[in-house]
Sequence to fold (435 residues):
Amino acid sequence: DLFADLVWRSDSVIKPFEEAFPADRLFVGETDGSSFPNGGLRVTHAAAAFTTWDRGSPPFVHDGVLYIPCCFVTHLGTSIDAKTPLLRSSDAVNRQALRLLRAMKKEPKATVCYNYLGWEQEFFVVPAALYRARPDLVNCGRTLIGALPTMHQQGELHYFASVPLRVQELMTNIQEKMLMVGNPMTVKHNEVAPGQHEMCPIFSISNASADSNVFFMQVASEEAAKLGLVVLFHEKPFKGINGSGKHCNWSVGTDTGVNFFHPGKTADSLEIYVAGIACLAYGLKKHNELIRCAVAHAGNDHRLGAQEAPPAIISLYPGPKFEAHIDSIISGGPLAGLNIEKKMIDPGSRNTMAVPAAVEDRNRTASFPHCGNRFEFRGVGSSQNCAMPVATCNIVFASGCAALANLLEGGMSLRDAIAKIFKESREVIFTGNGY
Fold:
């Protein structure tokens, strides 16, 4: 902003200028929306579009510029961005999850249900000079010709090796920049493929977390350029080795501390957990195409289905033990009875201590594996904005909450209602090898 405005109160025909910054500019604004990249959904003669501050995502200053996270809507109120659907889906989760808890007669003190996101950003780092020498990488984001080296990722030599010094410097610089705007990064390491790396933040409310990821991608590219490097966010820049995803660790919880995807330690928390997974299974079964479309684009479809990426078929992985529990509930068994105690793994050496492990193993070939207290949407591509995939997660979960609440409000018992939901959604649950 110029921090200047016309003096409208002046009687002069030609209004003078004054130094000013009207406060309302922080909250709303108007710009041209007809040429906004929108897949041809906008007509040129309907040009007005408006920004309005997302007050749930903190503004920040970077390189002397104030960044204010905003929604972007048309004159008719329709969204032409990725943030608005996410915020609307968050409201839907809040309404339907609270409605379900009331119908279950659980958590009477809960006043809001949040949805959370912790993203895992994978990317490749290459020298800028080599990048510029490859027109296919520059123009397409991926190589179109070439051959695999004799040794690439078979021996996991890169995954467990030391981080290259230039990349270590890059990731440290990114970490510092992110911390300056209030986004602490907790993970930075090599990934499986040569030249592939990953960084992750502390999880937070979904809309703020999605914004931080967009900013992370900008910072990564800026800091790489300073070091003579280029960060590749394409999902499959190199044939024959792992591609890059942006795994979205997503959960839903109340302001009283209840997590729909964690069994907890009480009978009530276990029933909420079972109900939460039933709702998610219902939504994934009923809206399967929606979830698939949320991660379908040219780059990501090169990645899905091989080399640690989940298949393009969307299924739910709650774990083999919970799958057996689902079948028991469908057959008339109780909601209780699930063994949720962590197991201890003995390394078999007197020099080492036993390792506490989760109840279920993790499944890299699943689209939606359960990870202890959340579900990991593994199908999201590394170049994507998290907002739309997480919005679809919220939508399908809210749909399931509404379906289960309808049954309970109609007089059906909690056990029978959950059994009915699981029976109708059983086909979407798969705990085997997705390949």
Summary: Residues 387-409 form the longest helix (23 residues). DSSP finds eleven helices and 18 strands in the chain. The radius of gyration is 24 Å.
